[in-house]
Write a structure and sequence with these properties.
Length: 193
């Protein structure tokens, strides 16, 4: 069967672009919370600082320790998500990019697992953003708060990282089920011969 170009597979193209964007963002922002500070050149270390100064992201800011030790400890759960991102999602991004480029169905199960996992871990992140108080100034005396603009900025950046994996979960589940049914039908035909 000839390979269908990626441009002719719109959902796969979206997933490919999603992984291609997500991979550098993961290394440049998310995973800096896990790296030893000495590993990161100052120009790159400034990326999450700038991002948190602009957005007041309670997740990245807390994981990086920008909001103090107590906030960092309170967000240990989020740091565990970052470990999953480092050791599971990053390899999936690379394998997924290659598999989507080649148009191989052998990656469907892996992408289904990735997408379901990512949807599940992104939902609590959205819940944190939605439950963070809105105030006229970014930080209030009682803890982290967001301005309305920061909340909108964070939602506009986190929602796609929830919706794309959610759609991917449904899409890959349907693809896996279709392949399973086709295999079962082929097996029936083979047995009848």
């Amino acid at each position: 069967m000839p390979r269908i170009p990626l441009a002719q597979r719109p959902r796969d193209l979206v997933y490919f672009l999603f992984f291609a964007i997500h991979l550098p963002a993961t290394f440049l922002v998310d995973l800096q919370a896990l790296y030893p500070r000495t590993w990161v050149p100052s120009i790159i270390a400034n990326i999450p600082k700038f991002y948190v100064e602009m957005s007041n992201d309670p997740l990245i800011g807390s994981a990086m320790g920008f909001f103090g030790q107590s906030q960092m400890e309170a967000y240990t759960w989020f740091r565990s998500f970052l470990i999953v991102e480092a050791f599971f999602q990053v390899p999936v991004f690379i394998i997924g990019l290659r598999g989507l480029w080649k148009g191989t169905s052998s990656i469907y199960v892996l992408l289904l697992i990735y997408a379901a996992s990512t949807t599940t871990t992104t939902l609590p992140c959205l819940a944190v953003i939605l439950s963070t108080p809105i105030s006229p100034t970014p930080l209030s005396a009682s803890g982290i708060s967001l301005t309305a603009e920061q909340s909108l900025l964070l939602l506009s950046s986190y929602i796609p990282f929830f919706l794309v994996p959610l759609v991917m979960t449904i899409d890959m589940a349907i693809r896996v089920q279709t392949l399973t049914f086709a295999g079962q039908e082929k097996q029936k035909v083979t047995k009848q011969e």
